[in-house]
Amino acid sequence: DKIIFELGIEPNWDKKFMDDIDKRLTDKELIGSIFIFITPQTAEEKTKNNLINLYKGKKFFKDIKIFDGSDITKWIEEDPAVSIWFNQQVGISDEGVETIDFYYDKWLYSTHIPLNEEIILARNIEDNIVEKLNNLESSKNLNVLNIQSNSSEEALLFLIAYLEKNKVYSIKYKSIIIDESGLTRICKEFNRYKNTIIIPLVKNNEINNINISFLASKDIKIILPTEKIDTRYEKIVLNDIKKESFGKFFSKYIGYSSDLLDNSGISLINLHNDLLILTPDFENNFKPYEEFILSLLPIYKWQKDSLDERFIEKQTKDINKIERTITNMS
User: Fold this and answer.
1) For residues 261 and 156, which has the higher predicted lDDT (pLDDT)?
2) What backbone phi and psi angles, to 5 degrees, belong to 65?
3) Which of 39, 122, 131, 270 could potentially form a cystine with 245 if both were Cys, beta carbons 3.0 to 4.6 Å apart?
4) What does each C-alpha distance from 325 to 15, 57, 256, 320 come to in angstroms?
């Protein structure tokens, strides 16, 4: 259904409502749509109902709703996801809890060159992801959906980008991200979160956390991002990012040729607030160079089956140039 929103801040909100809705009545393409009017003023229920019934009688709109200041206040107080979002907008911190948008922006811009939705989603994706997400919302038999990637951060980042691109707003705007302290707090007032989707960020050895099991037993919906490990939950296992797609991103933003990449998939891992790009042979080939590569600029790190001499040579020149610049500045 098409939805039309109008906002009126004037004290005589009822006049603004009638002016706005009368203008819409001349557009035949809006027949059967939903008209929603929002005002921060306090409106008497009788006045609201009279206006709604008056215009419903014209049989133009499928539905008409008026939300006033008291409705908005109640919404903020009773809906945890909205309450947390509102608090973040006005600079109030909710310990251990944050919204999807806040987490997403913080993650994307934690690196010198921001990530984007295109590269996060540049992988072969299961056709039934939306179906599984919808099942989580609607099924009484499914309370936990486990999304797996090479890191829990990458799994969560994919989920947020996917929800936005596919406009799955019914899940996005009901979801909150919590750490272990937030998980404990929510368990104490779980009834308040009956219409909220919980996304816990916990360590792998905590995925069978008693708090997660407790919330699931109370019919609280949970999306659990983890690494690729064995779990007892319904799961979505993500493929690695495509080499070709990442090659384009790599050469466009970093300035290195995409042919430096190997044939493996690419993993994104948030390490020391920087973006680490690595392949499955991390432990064997990358570890000895960790201290050196973590000191490099730009922030994006890369490695192959064997570290490419051209890469090391160019990075060494970059480091020398940076050191000379710092020396001259001091």
Assistant:
1) 156
2) -135, 145
3) 122
4) 65, 74, 22, 9
In angstroms, the CA 290 to CA 292 distance is 5
DSSP 8-state code for residue 287: G
Query: How crowded is residue 129: how many other Cβ atoms within 10 Å of its Cβ?
Result: 19
For residues 1 and 33, is the Cβ–Cβ distance under 8 A?
yes
Q: Are 258 and 248 in contact (CB under 8 A)?
A: yes
Please state the separation of Cα 294 from the chain's center in Å: 27
Q: Which two tokens stand for residue 149?
A: 């990637």
The set of long-range contacts for 49-52, using a CB threshold of 8 Å and a minimum separation of 24, is 51/14, 51/17, 51/18
292 within 8 A of 301, measured Cβ to Cβ: no
pLDDT digits (tens, 9 = 90+) for 1-48: 789 999 999 999 999 999 999 999 999 999 999 999 999 999 999 999
Q: Which residues contact 143 (CB under 8 A, 6 or more apart)?
A: 136, 216, 219, 220, 221, 222
In this structure, which amino acid lies at residue 37?
F
d(CA 281, CA 311): 17
- In whole angstroms, give the CA distance from residue 140 to residue 151: 29
Instruction: Taking each helix axis as running N to C, give the angle between helix 180-188 and helix 210-217, from 0 to 180 degrees, rounded to the nearest 10.
Output: 40
- The pair of structure tokens assigned to 107 is 């993650």
Tokens of 247: 């090659």
- pTM > 0.70: no
One DSSP character per residue, 156-217 reads HHHHHHHHHHTT-HHHHTTEEEE-HHHHHHHHHTGGGGTT-EEEE---GGGTT-HHHHHHHH
What the block records as the tokens of 274 is 């920087």
Rg of the Cα trace of the chain?
25
